[in-house]
Amino acid sequence: MPITGTDVNQVIGQAGEIVSSSADLAEWRLDYFNGLEETAGLIATTNRLTEILGDLPLIITLRDRTQGGKRQISDSDYQQLYTAILRNTNVAAIDLEWQRDATLLSQLIDLAHGQQVRTIISCHNYDQAPTEAEMVDQLTQMALLGGNLLELAITPTNANDVLGLMNAAHDASQRVEQPIIATAMGPLGTVTRVAGQTFNSALTFATIRSETAPGQLSVDQTRTILDVLAH
Fold it and tell me: N or C: the chain end with fewer CB closer than 10 Å?
């Protein structure tokens, strides 16, 4: 479940809604938040979130505009923000963009794992869906970084793109140790958000309010469909 508030009050309010929902975890999308420049306030808000969420794990995501986020973020700012969060909070996981500098990613992964924080290595293909072979290669290369989970998202233009993602996720899951999150965005890809267990996708994202990626369903819709498919 995404938290997309632009100020502290909105963020705290959305966290309360997530606690009252059937979500299994929360994701704070920092790129929506207007207070990134004030590190002390950001840390305080993060710690407040973990208190409110209780046993619900909190993922921190700072998404660049090139990856579907709300702002452009330099490598230096990216590293500084994540380093501050890792050293001063108790979040469950952070999302790291695969396209970032390899040395930067290695340093953040080492720091996160030293703090017992899981890392999600993510890649969002918004412009054009890769071929099935390219997606398998991407996931295999992402796995080499040593993160805990791999996330691959595409924007399909036809049903073959969706099937290619499903096949790639299943194929790659036989080659890498990490669980894979595979999502096709938009109406064509909605099936990948609720049938991931069929092709070894480990996690799906839903929403209470506005979607943070095209094609997201509400948490209630997602839970209902997942429960039906599980029986």
Answer: C
